[in-house]
Each structure stands twice: as structure tokens, then as C-alpha cells.
Design brief:
Length: 433
């Protein structure tokens, strides 16, 4: 422990742990908005006591509230093995502009670090409205109730229900769940094992929009991804005669597919158990129907239970998303726009005009080149009777240089006259013909 951390804990709270003759004493300072519940999880002779020596009160559990600082005495040497601690805070979201925060910190409860701790936030909305917890920053992923999160931080969302408390789910950090909503009130809690320091974090709380007892929203990233979900109380039964919603958000040009991995059907007394898909259109399917393999765009899945004669409905399902291939999207666009074909027809005719212009130009160039070649050939043929190049000229001139007067004046004249044309024809021969 660093000096500064030690100083902070000394300043903010009085942290005193004594181990005197098999008893442990610790002093904690309470945050005024919270309640602490210390309870014995085993039937063993360890008790928690408060109060001055003369009027000490001891028991198997203790509820602390409306106090600022309290000294606790446990009459055993390792109370952390038998006691668990729950730290409860209330978040009231009954105003229209509710803007609360779930602040995840244990700086005030360091003396309790050795105990298994549960941090619980009780959320309350006005009647018939819902409260929403935003997980956009970290994201959550649902786990099977028997699973343990890799970072030992396990979240649980619970709501009271006419049929008893309902566990919406257990979750770990890091996942596609971007928010959760519960109707009227419920609790969100975080459990950490003994000795595990709490990771700091914050989730915003606001008024929600659902009329179902719970709604979970997943935001899928671009490309291929998937997430597994479980019905409330899994593997036990979904609440009787009620409905829950999952909302899936995707980017443009993405499709969603839903696959039921494990289904237990309820025994229905009244009504039907069914699945409602609500996207661009609404589709109602029975539990045993083949679930939609492809739905494009954002969609809601509502699981609706019947009035059961025997508890039963449970569901484990998988939601996958992927992009709609560009070809598919283009085919759709083309199919969708036969009425817009008039402007399109202008483009091919303009292309034809352009092609005609280019072709004519090329034809003129080719004809020009051909004419040039023919002319040069003719000239070449004629020049074969005279020296055709400089080499010939020199061999021709040099012998006659000694008596230039005898040289044919005409031949010399012809050569000087065609000198330029000769050079030019060589170039043309190389380049064009
Ligand atoms: C799905 O909903 C989100 C949030 O409302 C929105 O940003 C996104 O564009 C929607 N996706 C589609 C394909 O409409």
C-alpha cells in the first residue's frame, strides 16, 4: 500500500482492525445515502456486535443506516469466512428529467475489503414508467447463472413481480448490451469476492420507454457479430402471463438472425406463448416455428408467456448480425426503381454518341497514317535509283571527289534536293510504317 493511499484512507475513514483474543474489531464510516447489511451466511457461533462495552448488542446480522461512523466487533477471529456484506444505495428516478448515476466505488468501504461484498442500487421510477441503465461505455454480456466473470465482477438485474422476484439476468463487463430497462422499480447489483478491490465505474440512469417488465437493448457493431441471451430466471421459468422485450440495433445494410438454442415450452392453461418480432413489419410466431433467419434493420423480439398450468418456459437464444452483401443491396435498388428508368435511358445514348466521335477521330488518324506510309513508300522506291543513305552517298561521292567535274551534275543535284526528305522518311519509317 502506498503512502498516499494510506493517508487517504486515514483521512476519509477510520480504519482500525484489531485482533484481540480471537475477536476482530473494525470501524467503518458510512456514506449517508447508503445502508449496510452485514449477515452471517453460516450457522456458526460468530456474532457481530455494536455499542459501548456496557450496552453492547450482538447478533447474527446487523443493519446499519442513518449513522456516520460505527465500530463493529466480531466475536471470532475470521469473520470474513462467515459474514457477507451488502451495501445498498437508492436511486430515485421518479422525476421526468431523472438523471442519476450508479457510481461504482468502494473507497468508503475499504475496512470491509476482506468480506464478500454486494453493491446494490435500488432503482425507482414513477408508476407505469420505466428506469433505464446505460451501459454504452463498458457494455455487458449475459452469462449463465453458474458462470463466473473473468474479472470477478458479476452484475445482477432483478425486479419484483407478482409471481415473486425475477432475475432478468446475470452479466459480465464487456459485451453488446448497451442498456437495460425495468418497469417501476428493481435492483441492479454487483458482487465481488472477498479481498477483490472494486473497479471504479459509472452508469447513467434515466427514464426509459418500455411498458414491459424488462427490456434489454443490444447494439451490434458493423460486420459480423453475435450474442447469446437467456430468458429471465433461466434455467427456471419465465414469469407467468407476462412479456419481456429485447431490442437489437444494427447499422445500415445489416441483417439479424435469431436462433433458438434451447427451449423449454410451458404448459398453457390460457392464451398462447409466442414470439413477436417488431421491425419494419410485425410478425408473430409460435415458439416452435422456425425463427426468422434474416431480418434487415433494427428489430425487437418480445417473448410472451401464456397463463401457465405448470411452470416451464425457458429459452436460450442466439442473435447474429452480418452485412447485407453489396450485390444484394444493388439488386434490390435495381428492382425497386423501374419507374426511374427514363433518366437512365439517356445515359446509353450519350455513350453511343461519345463512342461515334471517338471512332471517327481514330478512323481519320488511321487513314492519315496510311496515306503518309504510301507517299513515303513511293518516294523510297524512287530514291532507290539514287543514293538512299549517307553511307551510299559517301562511297559514291568519295571516288569521284578527285574529279568532281566528271560527276554527273544531275545526280548530285537530285541528292542535295532530297536530303531533307531522306532524313524525314527514316523517322517516319521507324515511327509509323
Ligand atoms: C437502429 O437504431 C439506432 C438507434 O436509434 C440508429 O442509430 C440506427 O441508425 C438504426 N439502424 C437502422 C438500420 O435503422
Amino acid at each position: 500500500m502506498s503512502i498516499s493511499t494510506a493517508r487517504v484512507s486515514l483521512q476519509t475513514l477510520l480504519f482500525l482492525v484489531f485482533t484481540v483474543s480471537g475477536a476482530q474489531k473494525l470501524t467503518i464510516t458510512l456514506n449517508k445515502a447508503s445502508t449496510i447489511h452485514i449477515s452471517n451466511t453460516q450457522v456458526r457461533g460468530c456474532r457481530v456486535c455494536t455499542g459501548p462495552v456496557g450496552s453492547r448488542q450482538c447478533g447474527q446480522s446487523l443493519l446499519l443506516k442513518d449513522t456516520t461512523s460505527v465500530s463493529l466487533l466480531f466475536d471470532c477471529s475470521r469473520p470474513q469466512d462467515v459474514f457477507k456484506v451488502e451495501i445498498v444505495q437508492n436511486i430515485d428516478c421518479t422525476t421526468t428529467w431523472c438523471n442519476g448515476h450508479i457510481i461504482q466505488t468502494d473507497s468508503s468501504y475499504l475496512p470491509l475489503l476482506d468480506f464478500k461484498r454486494t453493491f446494490t442500487w435500488n432503482l425507482k421510477a414513477s408508476a407505469l414508467t420505466s428506469v433505464k441503465i446505460d451501459f454504452t461505455k463498458t457494455g455487458l454480456r449475459q452469462i449463465h447463472p453458474s458462470e463466473i466473470c473473468p474479472d470477478s465482477h458479476t452484475y445482477t438485474l432483478q425486479v419484483p413481480h407478482t409471481t415473486g422476484s425475477v432475475t432478468i439476468g446475470k452479466f459480465c463487463r464487456g459485451g453488446l448490451i448497451s442498456n437495460a430497462q425495468i418497469l417501476n422499480h428493481g435492483s441492479f447489483s454487483l458482487e465481488v469476492p472477498a479481498g477483490q478491490k472494486l473497479q471504479n465505474g459509472q452508469f447513467d440512469v434515466s427514464v426509459g420507454d418500455t411498458s414491459n417488465f424488462a427490456k434489454i437493448t443490444l447494439t451490434f457493431p458493423k460486420g459480423i457479430s453475435s450474442s447469446e441471451l437467456l430468458s429471465p430466471n433461466y434455467p427456471d421459468s419465465f414469469p407467468d402471463d407476462d412479456e419481456m422485450e429485447w431490442h437489437f440495433q444494427v447499422s445500415d445494410k445489416h441483417k439479424i438472425s435469431v436462433q433458438f438454442l434451447k427451449l423449454t415450452e410451458p404448459q398453457c392453461q390460457r392464451k398462447k406463448a409466442e414470439v413477436v418480432y417488431q421491425g419494419e413489419k410485425t410478425e408473430i410466431l409460435s415458439l416452435t416455428d422456425h425463427q426468422p433467419y434474416e431480418i434487415s434493420g433494427n428489430v425487437s423480439l418480445k417473448l410472451r408467456n401464456c397463463r401457465m398450468s405448470e411452470k416451464g418456459l425457458s429459452l436460450n437464444f442466439k442473435v447474429s448480425t452480418s452485412t447485407i452483401w453489396p450485390e444484394e443491396a444493388e439488386v434490390q435498388v435495381m428492382k425497386d426503381s423501374p419507374k426511374n428508368s427514363a433518366p437512365n435511358s439517356r445515359q446509353p445514348s450519350m455513350l453511343i454518341i461519345n463512342l461515334t466521335v471517338v471512332t471517327s477521330f481514330l478512323a481519320i488518324v488511321v487513314i492519315g497514317l496510311l496515306v503518309a506510309c504510301v507517299v513515303i513508300r513511293k518516294k523510297k522506291n524512287r530514291n532507290h535509283q539514287t543514293p538512299a543513305n549517307h553511307a551510299n552517298y559517301s562511297t559514291y561521292v568519295l571516288p569521284g571527289h578527285s574529279d568532281l567535274s566528271t560527276t554527273n551534275a544531275d545526280e548530285y543535284h537530285v541528292y542535295t534536293k532530297i536530303d531533307d526528305t531522306l532524313v524525314y522518311s527514316h523517322l517516319l519509317e521507324k515511327v509509323a510504317c
